[in-house]
Amino acid sequence: MSTSLIDLDRAHLVHPVASYRTHEQLGVRVIASASGATVTDSTGHQLVDGFAGLWCVNAGYGHESIVEAAAKQLRTLPYATGYFGLGSEPAIELAAELAKRAPGDLNHVYFTLGGSDAVDSTIRFIRYYWNMRGKAAKDQFISLEQGYHGSSTIGAGLTALPAFHAGFSVPYAWQHKIPSHNVYRNPVGSDPAAVIAASVAQLRQKVAELGGPERVAAFYAEPIQGSGGVLVPPTGWMKAMRDVCRELDILFVADEVITGFGRTGPLFACSEDDVVPDFLTVAKGLTSGYVPMGAVFMSEHVYQTLADGAGSSAVGHGYTYSAHPVSAAVGLEVLRLYEGGLLENGRKAGARLMEGLNSLKNHPLVGDVRGRGMLAAIELVVDKEKKTPFPAAAQPSRRIFDRAWNNGLVIRAFADGVLGYAPPLCCTDSDIDAIIQRTKLTLDQTLEDPDVR
Ligand code: PMP
């Protein structure tokens, strides 16, 4: 790799969610090109991308038809605003195609630039909604510990990961958490009914603590907690939480930024969970990471309340790049590819991935294997019986990431020894087999590493 590029990066590029000092020491690794599920770095090292970039390149790399769709739109109309009653063909078509496929009556789509501003937009819409309903006191928000809902100023407060709070003066006083369903480390044990009952009780308890339903605006949940370590709730958890929210007149927001667009199997994980939320947020797989875009789906009653409430006034929420036509054109083509075989391939590849990861269950370091579809994790422990996490001081995350990298595999190594998997849906059998085989090699090497154990 060119040294000057590393130096230029060190001198000028501020990286997202990084220790700036550690990054300066280590230097950047440059990804130079990619095709299918394989990425190549600037030294020519090839790796299977077991994390689809940042769980976003669901379609895989190198689809000419996506490039063509973007190029065609760039030539025809590179930009159109949605302000002043204007619009563009691809944005309207994409909204309509998505609404057709979204669960229940999530018929209205507001496009953003990514996931953080999609979540941020829901907060604004929810405040507006309750104000329009004459219930301004409903201004408290609840989310889950180990949840991730983005990195915007207020969204980061719904997020419950320490690095997103420390030093930033969030969360705000109106942002509250209840414990995660974390089946592997739940004080009530791993029995699904007990885990669901505990979460339901915790939500009710939190609502009561905050002064009752008349104070609570909304509850946020990911169908599977992603950045918290791929925590899969028991079947029926989403529905149980949704039912409590409906009973208490609290809006339910499903954050599908990771789980959307085939990651767990269908286009929306909520469909599998048999849940229709009031709001649903997506990003990542919406454009498969080729260009930035996110979206907020709102249900019929939410949209009608906002529309009636505002009357002839503007609902003052919008971005220059809301419903960007190039992103929308990419979204339409990506959707066509998903339905033209990628979802189907992802379901098969997901089954193979889970089978392969489960085959590692007896490895001395593997405490837990969990996942759904092409979204999975293994949790490494020092002592299986006691579920003792890896000592943080040994920096297991960085060591494991580096080792996997050298073995030709990109994974997400979370700080506590959880390895995350979210490969592109286009993975072939041999891609999946390489992921498993290289994971096993990485685990065996880690077992021999005296500094980590
Ligand atoms: N919500 C969830 C569930 C996410 O996983 C993420 C990103 N990982 C976001 C929101 C924020 O999305 P973005 O990074 O596109 O802003």
From TrEMBL:
Required cofactor names: pyridoxal 5'-phosphate
Domain of life per record: Bacteria
Gene Ontology MF terms: pyridoxal phosphate binding; transaminase activity
CDD domains registered for this protein in UniProt: OAT_like (cd00610)
SUPFAM superfamilies recorded: PLP-dependent transferases
Keywords tagged on the record: Aminotransferase, Pyridoxal phosphate, Transferase
A Pfam family: Aminotran_3
Family according to the record: Belongs to the class-III pyridoxal-phosphate-dependent aminotransferase family.
UniProt protein name: Adenosylmethionine-8-amino-7-oxononanoate aminotransferase
Species of origin: Insolitispirillum peregrinum
